[in-house]
Specification:
An 8-stranded parallel barrel has the order 3-4-5-10-11-12-13-14. The protein has about 350 residues and is an alpha/beta fold. The chain has 11 helices and 14 strands.
């Protein structure tokens, strides 16, 4: 029987176990949106994970959605991440950079002068973001033109190349949690009628083309994608009637690319859809399961049952940097302070640390 403590060949990257550290926003970047010495220490402490997936890293200046988040679009940023990847590798770990364009989530106050938030359609998300001047409502984003969409796909590919140059083992495209790729997938935020919207086949195009461009740039074996079907976070609206058709069509297209992995973050009772997507995908499958609170030791059974090849833990990794050893020993565990996480203890929202 396969267990979470067995090794895994992740499309050419050998993992020591099947326990992943889920991507979690930190807002601890240094000047110029760089990684810091503390960043290197933070990830190196957790290098016993089979795979570390970093916090979201913006592929361009306009892709930033929160204060003090890091980038991978300047020479200074690339150099800063080299210290992080070196520290993780020295400790025996493997680390993928999560590339995250926030799209309509954020505020012009967080962007360089003259830039405004962009999205598939000019539809503002309900909610607020914290800035240096306090909380501010999300603004109505500027709709991307067709040429700008292609340029944005190019930004993802360039950031992926920068990640490899910085020493990362691969990248994960953030297609979940209401950020740009998810905004294209969801009919509530994508109201286009051109080739990028209007039907499930068109709404998945941005995700597919971005994955294809990144795979062409750095290799499919170093390219993963995270999705969260039906996740309402950041005011996303995905009617259940369309959800299965959208995501099964998307995963069918992704399977043809031979990606490193597919990573599903469950929100709510969608295990049937997760099972369908696992069966449809032809590569390794990571599951961040829906739970009442932070994902706990019971999730290890998902690997034994064959529901996932890798199980991702978030909050428990924050409180327990040596989590794989504690899981193998069946404890003890430090208890995460869930009051500091997005969504608090609300059912279905797990593993989101505070800004």
């Amino acid at each position: 029987m396969t267990t979470a403590f067995d090794s895994l060949d992740l499309s050419g990257t050998l993992l020591g176990n099947r326990i992943a550290m889920a991507p979690m926003t930190r807002s601890r970047a240094g000047a110029g949106a760089t990684a810091t010495e503390l960043t290197a220490e933070y990830y190196a402490q957790r290098a016993s994970a089979g795979l570390i997936i970093t916090e979201g890293i913006q592929p361009s200046a306009v892709g930033q959605g929160y204060p003090d988040t890091p980038g991978l679009h300047s020479a200074e940023q690339i150099e800063s991440w080299r210290k992080v990847t070196a520290a993780v590798h020295e400790a025996g770990g493997r680390i993928f950079a999560q590339i995250m364009h926030a799209g309509r989530i954020g505020h012009p106050a967080l962007l360089p002068d003259g830039l405004v938030n962009v999205a598939p359609s000019p539809v503002a998300a309900k909610g607020q973001v914290y800035t240096a001047d306090g909380p501010k409502d999300f603004v109505t984003p500027r709709e991307l033109t067709g040429d700008e969409i292609r340029a944005t796909i190019g930004d993802f590919a360039a950031a992926a190349r920068n990640a490899i140059d910085a020493g990362f083992d691969g990248v994960e495209l953030h297609g979940a949690s209401g950020y740009l790729i998810h905004q294209f997938l969801a009919p509530g935020s994508n109201r286009r009628t051109d080739e990028w919207g209007g039907t499930p086949e068109n709404r998945i195009r941005f995700a597919v083309e971005t994955a294809r461009a990144v795979a062409a740039e750095i290799g499919a074996a170093r390219t993963g994608l995270r999705l969260s079907p039906g996740n309402p976070f950041n005011d996303i609206s995905e009617p259940q009637a369309e959800r299965e058709a959208t995501y099964t069509s998307l995963v069918k297209e992704l399977s043809a690319l031979d990606l490193a992995y597919l990573h599903i973050m469950e929100v709510g009772p969608i295990r049937d859809l997760s099972t369908t997507l696992r069966a449809s995908f032809n590569g390794p499958f990571i599951l961040n399961p829906a739970t009442e609170g932070p994902t706990g030791p019971d999730a290890l059974a998902l690997v034994e049952e064959g529901a996932a090849d890798i199980v991702a833990f978030g909050a428990l990794f924050l409180a327990n940097p040596d989590l794989p050893a504690r899981l193998k020993a069946e404890g003890p565990y430090n208890t995460p302070d869930t009051s500091t996480f997005y969504g608090g203890t609300e059912k279905g929202y797990t593993d989101y640390p505070a800004l």
